[in-house]
Design goal:
alpha/beta, 5-stranded parallel beta sheet, 4-stranded parallel beta sheet, 13 strands, globular
């Protein structure tokens, strides 16, 4: 298949749904005792709700929404530090649009911009580089945010800045990695997970073998999936098929895009520019060992943490969640967005308490945008 429409074919979807129901019945999955499958990626969550897959699949299959939204898992302390950098004299702070409305303890980047800080939305770190070239008297800071998907582009921008000797460009590095939080969830005795739908975009960079531990050490099946409805239905069938056959493997449903061993050019750039942090704080999960990246010493001139003496370079800040915010419970699968007492009441896209309501990959945003009657009922 070559075109998106082929991955949305109703006849093919019905056939997959019938196969899912057959295997679900075979393994004894019911509404009361469902198979819990976590879609790690927030993009998958949005696809599931956009196409109503949660309502179409067998009642014995329950989707658990994982922490695969980098904006959502960013702790409020890091948002506060972004604002602190942005409000310094002479700074142009640049960021992807997703992060603009995420609330810190007092305000968001969008509110800081309204208060006078020079904060600009960009589509790529290369846009920030160009701003640095055009404004040699200003310090241009790029908010390096995201999983392995966006990490290579930031690395390439730092390499380019080093080649050009752009001394007024730096990156506030908040890049994080996917496998470690999955391990943290699997180690949590309160979590009940039977299988995983693995992230497609991340796997384009890192390949499928970083997930081997899920099958080998924990005996859980995982299928790396694409983002169209047939992709997701097929990946659910693959996970259920492994359970039915007593297998636990890493399977690649998205093989048309995801290479087994990842992208060597991207991996080389990441290895050159970054090293693993001892630990990094995740919203809802706390500090997770070796789950974040920091800029290597050879590129220290482009590290905003070192340049401004902020972030982990200045010592970790302890910041509590906003009162009533249940982002942590939602991201770890302990609660569905509509079960949060603030959903649609104290937390809306216009006035969010947490990042999950404003991020384009946030679970709460997915429920609000595509939940229909469920979202309306929760708001009333």
């Amino acid at each position: 298949m070559k075109f998106a429409s082929e991955f949305r074919d109703p006849k093919a979807a019905k056939a997959l749904l019938a196969e899912i129901a057959k295997v679900a019945d075979q393994i004894g999955a019911t509404k009361e005792k469902p198979v819990h499958i976590m879609e790690v990626c927030g993009g998958h969550t949005h696809s599931i709700f956009r196409y109503g897959l949660d309502k179409l699949v067998h009642e014995g299959v329950e989707f658990i929404h994982g922490p695969g939204c980098p904006v959502c898992v960013l702790p409020r302390a890091r948002v506060d530090e972004c604002i602190e950098i942005a409000e310094r004299e002479g700074v142009i702070f640049t960021t992807f649009g997703d992060a603009m409305r995420v609330p810190g303890t007092k305000k968001s980047l969008l509110q800081a911009k309204a208060d006078g800080a020079d904060i600009r939305m960009v589509y790529s770190p290369l846009d920030a580089l160009e701003l640095a070239r055009r404004n040699p008297a200003r310090e241009v800071v790029f908010f390096g945010l995201g999983f392995e998907t966006t990490t290579p582009s930031t690395a390439l921008a730092i390499q380019q800045a080093a080649r050009e000797g752009l001394g007024n460009f730096s990156v506030f590095c908040n890049h994080i990695t996917v496998p470690e939080p999955i391990k943290a969830l699997l180690d949590d005795p309160h979590m009940c997970l039977d299988g995983f739908i693995g992230p497609g975009h991340v796997s384009m960079v890192i390949g499928i073998h970083p997930y081997d531990f899920i099958a080998q050490d924990y005996g859980k099946p995982i299928a790396v999936a694409g983002f169209e409805p047939l992709d997701l239905l097929q990946s659910v069938l693959m996970v259920l098929g492994q359970i039915a056959e007593g297998r636990a493997e890493v399977e690649n449903q998205y093989a048309r895009v995801v290479p087994e061993h990842g992208n060597p050019v991207s991996l080389a750039a990441i290895d050159d520019v970054y090293e693993t942090r001892p630990s990094f704080e995740w919203r809802g999960l706390g500090e997770i060992d070796k789950s974040g990246l920091r800029i290597r010493a050879q590129y220290e001139a482009y590290d905003a943490e070192e340049k401004f003496g902020i972030g982990y370079a200045a010592g970790k800040r302890e910041v509590e969640e906003a009162e009533g915010c249940a982002c942590g419970q939602v991201m770890t699968g302990r609660m569905k967005p509509v079960e949060c007492p603030q959903f649609g009441r104290g937390c809306t896209p216009e006035m969010p308490l947490g990042a999950l309501m404003v991020s384009s990959e946030g679970a709460c945003a997915a429920y609000w945008q595509y939940g229909g009657a469920r979202a309306v009922e929760a708001a009333e």
